[in-house]
Write a structure and sequence with these properties.
Elements: H1 2-84
């Protein structure tokens, strides 16, 4: 009877050790996935900053072009009225 109880106890300990090994492996896998996710987040943050900067520069260029076109249109309209007088 003691042998049976001892075997059951040994089996339980073996199962617990195996479960602990699996948990340790899973924890390592999750830690690696977390690190990879953090790297990806930092990469995306830098891309987002770069795209926002590019968009702002493009808007500035477009605004400058629009001002030039408006100025040219005003100049052309002013000269056209002078020619009609």
């Amino acid at each position: 009877m003691e042998d049976k109880a001892l075997r059951r106890l040994e089996d339980s300990v073996r199962r617990l050790i195996a479960q602990q090994g699996h948990s340790s492996t899973r924890t390592s896998q999750l830690a690696a996935a977390l690190a990879k996710s953090r790297d990806e987040i930092e990469k995306l943050k830098s891309q987002n900053f770069r795209f926002r900067s590019e968009r702002m520069e493009t808007r500035k260029k477009l605004d400058a072009i629009i001002r030039r076109v408006d100025h040219l249109a005003e100049t052309a309209n002013g000269q056209g009225e002078d020619a009609g007088d």
